[in-house]
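Input record (one chain):
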Amino acid sequence: MKNKITTKNFGILNSINKIMKKSLLLFILASFSLVNAQTIESTYEKPLSPLELLQPIKIQTFEEGSLGPFTNGPLASIFSTNNDSPEAITTPTVPGQVEIDKTVEPVAGYTNLWEVTLRIEGMDGAINSDIVLTMDRSGSMNSDDRLVKAKVAAIEFVNTLLVTGSTTRIALVSFGGSSATVDETFLGVADKATLIIAINNLNASGQTPTQAGMRQAEALLSASTADLKSIVLLSDGVPTFSYALTASGYSPDDFLIPYPARGAQQTSALAPESAYNYSSNVGGNGTMWWRYENNSGSSNDKYYNHGNSARAEAGFAKNDGYVVYTIAFEAPQDGIDVLADMASPFKDYIATGATGELNAIFQVIAGSLLNAVQFASVSDPMGQGFTVLGTAQNIVATQGTVLYDSNNNTIDWDIGTLVQSIPLPGDQAVKFAELKYEIFITEDILTAPNVNGLYPTNGNATLSYTDINGNIIQPTPFPVPTVDPVIVTIEKTFLDSSGQIINDPDFIFSVGFSGMFNGDIELNSTDVLVIANEVSAAYMFTETGVTENGTPGLLSEYDITYEVDGVTGNTFQFFPNSPDQALMVTNKICTLNIDCPTTFTASAQCIAPDAATTQAELEALGVVFNSNCGTIVVSSNDVSNNNTCPEVITRTYTILDDLNGNGTQDTGENSTTCAQTITIDDTILPVLTGTAYTDATVYESCSTDAQATVPAWTAANAI
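The corresponding structure, as predicted from the sequence alone:
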């Protein structure tokens, strides 16, 4: 099938970019595809804040009504001035359901050029969700109005999730001093105002009992029957209180690990839940470590590490199936590290305090609590014999970032959370992301696997993502489309003057194709190349140049022949429905080879004939030209034996195969000689004309040997 190959029809995305007045801007709202703090740190020299990622990115500016470099050519079909969303499809139909698809279509007007489309769709959930918003209200939250900012972001978070028709409920826990409190139990949309009042009533004082806040959130969720249970914990500092490890006969000594900074020992995060005495607090010195035994500075000092206790408590929550989000809000590095370890995979965030940043993070979390596809990424390797047209800049995605590894011929698409919606009846919506790029064939297509001439355009492309329940989904394969390329090969045969094949890669021959936008093809005697992609048309191919070790040579030094599928000719059809074809260009090194007659006799009044000056005149004299490549230039030289009738003249012709047409012999041009012996001997009796006369003896003017008796002439026999 050459016109359209598709594995599933999801419809075509009508637009990627929107032509705006005076400019074309592509804005990426990165808040919907934020990378967690750890991932950002491993990717960039410094973490990007959510606010930085929120900034619109201006890709390129074009004049009104223009598509810039994409106005014409194969990439123009990707862009459209229509910004309508694609129509909703019948699938997915169940909240949380995810569908993926991959199609390939030929680019109109071109042969061996296809547009590949990857599409991901997910239906966001109306599943029951209970969330415990757990907020730090320690004294440090008064600094820089952190608690004020946190309240604003938290209220926006509540307003985003608690909307008409929502089954989500949110509870509020706060921690400060040495304990945590339940400020509001789970409330839905009907009681949203009560929850907002509770948030506004929070006041900051005391220290930071992070473990207590996590413990209280767990207790609330333990009685929840929701499908999805989540904890969103915000803190600006390090934990300074924790629970004593004295329950069930345990001692903190049972869980000690080295504390290198002080040359001492500290409690680890490995204590079981049963070891904690949740009615007894330890700490209060304003730091993350609290010494519980021995004098300060001795080698056997023992400390509670409140951060490790918070890590352990978060581990208990995650083991119970709760999803834990953490936000480090203007926190020191120790606090950032603790909160990152507490979070579920890819659920930790860093807020530096920039305007709007914390709100953006809360909105990302709000979206992730409902989204069917989160933290999505695609790895898309090309199939053997196919490669991407252009660079990563020519790959168009509706969201996220795209990297193209030309060495491995693979596209990596970091999508994030699906953000573009296709409205559906009711409160449900399908969100989608789409990637488009163009491919063409390479020489590797000649050895690529195929089934009845259909070649897979890609390898095993996969989607990895986190689903609506917070589960990390193993890579899911996309369909593998196939196409039927038009395989036109061009091969060079290089022969010496005797017709023997020469395999010398130092000789590079250029072959031009009339009207092809890709220009000349360069190949040597060992190459078999393919016509990759071109405008669909009929083409003529001719050799345009040759170099040896980089030095230009003369094509006139070769006898050049062209074949298409073994038949002499240099034109072929290149359309999507054309058959596969084999083009051959043969170069045979030129030689000047003639057959030269050795004698020529002239007997016309003892006068030597004029010397030949052209190839045609030489051929008239009997010279046979077996092979030559250029224009024949003829010169001659006569040498006489100085006799008369007969006189013998040796005439030597110098015959030049003039390749560059300058009339003189240059390097690489062949010449030969042809010597002819010309004998001049007048053996024809004279014929007299005129009036009658008596008998007489007439002598030939140049010799007494030739004589005749002429009878008397009369008027009757006069000529």
